[in-house]
Amino acid sequence: MTSQPASTSRLPSRQRILAAACEAFAQNSYETVGLREIAARAGVDVAQAHRSFGSKLELFNEAFRSAIRADMEVLRDCDDLAATMAEMLLARRAAVPGKLGAGLSILLHSVASPEAMAALRQVANTEFLDPLRGRRDSGGREGVVLAAAFLAGLGIAFQVLEFDALDGADRETFKRRVVSILRTITAGDTA
């Protein structure tokens, strides 16, 4: 077994397994990550990982849910949904160029997996779409879906395609443009 970082070594094994799964699925596709790898990252045996979550798919589902949970608390309680969404995406990218939050990274790495897509779809609906569509500034279900698609597209441009043009863009100007687009989407404007 590999040793886990000191910051996670004192956590209960279930939390260590979940943290290791979030990290592994944010870096690699669903198909290429195995329970043995996650268990090794967490410093437990594979039987413990299996007992704690039941299956790789159940662990994947919980890892995705866990990865977006903190962001959702911020988004549910923020004053300006469009500005907060833009700031969250761009702040993470600025902190580690080319990298996004764990939730979006997990989504992008496993979107091609039919097995993972069912879990991604279910969690995205219950943890992202449903809670946000009730906000006055969300544009309802359609607005939230369009905003999520736009942000996922930016995630692909940043993380997968590694567009250089975005690296040189003035961050505040780019953020204002992203916020403007998100506000248009969530306002339902079609002009």
Automatic annotation (TrEMBL):
Gene3D superfamilies: Tetracycline Repressor, domain 2 (1.10.357.10). The keyword Transmembrane applies. Residues 11-71 form the HTH tetR-type domain. The keyword Iron does not apply. The chain crosses the membrane at residues 143-161. Keywords: DNA-binding, Membrane, Transmembrane, Transmembrane helix. Pfam families: TetR_C_16 (PF17920), TetR_N (PF00440). Residues 34-53 bind DNA. PANTHER family: HTH-TYPE TRANSCRIPTIONAL REGULATOR RUTR, TRANSCRIPTIONAL REGULATORY PROTEIN. This is TetR/AcrR family transcriptional regulator. It comes from Acidimangrovimonas pyrenivorans.
